Amino acid sequence: MDSTQKISHLALDIGGTLIKLVYFSANGDYSEESRNGCSVVHGKLCFAKFETRKIDDCLEFIRFNILHHSVNGFLQHPILDSKSAEVVTQTETTSADVEPGMGGNDSGVQHPNGEALDKLYVKATGGGAFKFADLFKEKLGILFDKEDEMHSLVGGVNFLLKTVPREAFTYLDGQKEFVKIDHNDLYPYLLVNIGSGVSMIKVDGDGKYERISGTSLGGGTFLGLGKLLTKCKSFDELLELSHHGNNRVIDMLVGDIYGGTDYSKIGLSSTAIASSFGKAISDGKELEDYQPEDVARSLLRMISNNIGQIAYLNALRFGLKRIFFGGFFIRGLEYTMDTISVAVHFWSRGEAKAMFLRHEGFLGALGAFTSYNNQSHNDLKPHHHTVQRAILNCSVEICVYHSSFVDEEGITKACGCPLLPLKSHIKGPAPISEQDKTDIVDEAITFFRANVFFTNFDIKSPADKLLIYLTFYINVALKRLEGCRTLAVGTKAIINLGLEDIPVPGETGFPFPGLFSLPQSQEEADLFRNYLKQVREETSGRLLSVAYRANGTPNKWWLAFAKRKFINVVVL
Ligand SMILES: Nc1ncnc2c1ncn2[C@@H]1O[C@H](COP(=O)(O)OP(=O)(O)OP(=O)(O)O)[C@@H](O)[C@H]1O
Ligand SMILES: CC(C)(CO)[C@@H](O)C(=O)NCCC(=O)O
After folding, report:
1. pLDDT by residue (tens digit) across 385-444?
2. Of 117, 192, 342, 525, whose CB has the highest number of CB atoms within 10 Å?
3. Structure confidence at residue 8 (pLDDT)
4. Are residues 338 and 446 in the same domain?
5. Distance 54 CA to ligand 1 centre (A)
6. Which of 181, 156, 187 lies closest to 169, judged by CA?
7. Ligand 1: which atom is nearest the Cα of residue 193?
8. What CA–CA distances, in Å, run from 418 to 52, 415, 567?
């Protein structure tokens, strides 16, 4: 994260399994632009998630990446003074605008009832807004301005459906089709939020809703049972397994019972599942005899089917034709969406439609975020179009910052790694980059304090591999700087690090086996080693300039990161 980046208006949704964060990050120098008498700040809406069991990581992330960058007093202003300003909507832009609302009472914070406050308030929803309120207060000095969980979910969905085009889509037979939402014909609909457990809410309008049902067989069941049955360690691993599995190995099909034929009289084909996991009764096998892939596949099918069916039954109860599915369980996974859609289609005989949302996992957090808008005495009015644009400008998985060096034209590679230009005077094979341009070292340093928090890094381009390597290297270098109380001592430690051998892929000590391809010749190995040496040295130099202040004393906002482990790689 850029040190000039300014963060404001954080909202949290703390659920049984995951904590979701939505926050506004203003660009660059936070310069305000005046339009129609209103000040406007350019920036983007950021989304992040953490496992609730690793709440300490979330606290650290907020401390270093949000509070440390918060606009002075900004977070203190969710509930504010009398001067209510407007957010200006731009029609053609790549950045989003949020009214900073600094126009009123800057010196103190006021509650709507007029009481002065000197605390940091942030919007929080989900069960954790209650469970962890004391922890946030104690560790970060943040107080929760609690929003009801169902209210936030509905607020989030209504906001998305009304303001973000191409938000809702159907998924059937491998076809994704965006649904055009008619704002005058949106209600009523059924919202099915698949989190750890599942909530089913009939929505009749803005703030008009009723939780009509739910089921405890949800995403938590999939992950919990999945971990027990397959020894998987994470949701991603379980999904990956399920991708390669075949549910028919364990599920008992109608055909298994009916000798291979359909039971057409009641509309069941021979391939329909008669009983999830039913084959395990008579197969005479132990759990170990089944492939974990097949177990994961059956489990995913079972949970998705069941939710689809209960959703349909509830839609039927109230005559609802549209069912929107949200929650982090879905994760845009085709198999899950297909199973749910087929279940809804099958049971409703094509009458009801299952729809999915692009921002499925952040409904509650977005609802809480947009509720800053609902305060009668607030100074933040993130106009729908503004937040809409902010959303369009980032992906849900913004958690990890990727390299912008996606264009590989004319770039030499070694071991599959692009040898990107560097603003460097250090000797080596890197082409020289223009001094006023960002290079990969800038990116690695800028993104380090955000990227180091994530345990998964989806590689979007070969440059991302170099970014991963440099993130790891910064982690190593910071570890060496730990305990170096002056810049001079730190510099010595870094010089010593530079004297160490630099392994290349295939050699002992290379940190990410499989990240880069093995060198095909000694020349390629030498080229890559020399490039790594150059880029590491360059990174070291620039790291020293951020890890120590101008007076040579350590910058705790950097050195505190020495303790972290990037992508679970132990740093020595
Ligand atoms: N990276 C992940 N780690 C853990 N679970 C994940 C992950 N990605 C998706 N999931 C799935 O999403 C579910 C959690 O979804 P979500 O965050 O919407 O619910 P929650 O708010 O934690 O739960 P609840 O609303 O019931 O309190 C998990 O139970 C799991 O099935
Ligand atoms: C308890 C909540 C609302 C917490 O998010 C959720 O996990 C849920 O809807 N569980 C299902 C509870 C039930 O209706 O059986």
Report:
1. 445 555 554 433 335 678 999 888 899 999 999 999 999 889 999 999 998 899 999 999
2. 192
3. 72
4. no
5. 13
6. 181
7. 18
8. 37, 8, 21
